[in-house]
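Exercise 7 asks you to align residues with tokens for two separate proteins.
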Amino acid sequence: EIENDKALIKYLEGQKTSGAAFDNTVYESYDAWIETIRKQIKKSESTLTNIEFKKVELEAIQKYIA
């Protein structure tokens, strides 16, 4: 999903640079859309980091209990 979002950002930046008409009723501009996707990427990366930390923490607890 993160890779898809990054690809979408590149596509939208290309559309913006080329001067393509903005045709989206959800976002007011390419910049707003791109910013929303960047926030989603940041949130996803944070979630993955948290999951990895919890996994390491769980493994440590399991070793301690065993």
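Second protein for Exercise 7:
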Amino acid sequence: MADLPLTGVRELPVDLAALVAPHLVDGVAVVPIVPDSELSTYLRDLGEPCVGALIDLGVLDGRRLCSMVLRPDGAEPFDELELDFLRGLAEDARDIARGVLAREQDKRISQALQAGMRNELQQVEGITAQAVYSSATEAAFVGGDFYDLIRLPDHRACVIMGDVSGKGVEAASVSAAVKTALGAYAWEGLAPARMVRSLNEFLLGFSRIETFATLFVGIVDLSAGTLRYCSAGHPPALLIHDGADEISILDVQSGVVGAFHDMTYVDGKVSLAPGDVLLLYTDGTTEARDPSGAFFGEEGLRDMVMRESDSTKPFDGFVDRLLATLEAFTGQNLDDDVAMLALRIDETGLKLGTNSSDER
């Protein structure tokens, strides 16, 4: 390599487009720098005559990227075999750069979409809610976990937890569509199973990619003191009764969403009392592993929930404590994204209304 004062980015005083045009192949160009050529003259004027090649990768991320491979003056110019080798390297470098840029753009779009998937929960009178989300790695693509709490008329609320298969833009875009559709269905007054059934047909017609979602959709009716829910392939929600030594598992299950037509979805229904806590979570919670490879599991989750819902501990920070325990179990090395959402029925929550609205 010639010892030239060319460190850093330089602007070439040449018509680059005209220079590389005769040498363009598949978007890249390798221009020989031979004695007495325009580029050779420019380099000689910098104080070091040389030969070599100019490599043009084209425009990437709004900038034209070029580099030069140089030999000292007196050396043989690159022959055709060497120029072909440089073209191969240039194409590989261009493809790698495009892939990196595409992944970065993919991640930015995903993060923008997902910012709305786990936004601040709506305030619902009579319900105290908190949620937490943790990515498997800080650098990971955004996954398909999402949740929401929607305030509805007549002292009702819709609670949603979902997990769309896949990562990146595809998962984020499907998550956005699912969340938007469920919000609309909830405002129509549909029962959870009806909402999920409509969503299944919507997804099968909407998405061109092979994806599916697991969902928990619940309607909390504070006037009636009930939770009606549909769990579509999702890990079973837990209902922690205030002052009780046991946890109710909401085990009425249906199939996943977005996989097949004519799926059957059914509702479950439970009664609510003041102080009860509903916990929703994604499968990254129970499928977390410790350093030896052992799963945290459903039993580990129930034991953790019982400890952290002890009457001596405040509800404030409940899901944060659950996540901290889970991360300690894994040695701060989660294998999958984790989302948790907890709702507590306040003491005054079930006294807000006297008439329950029928769901269609």
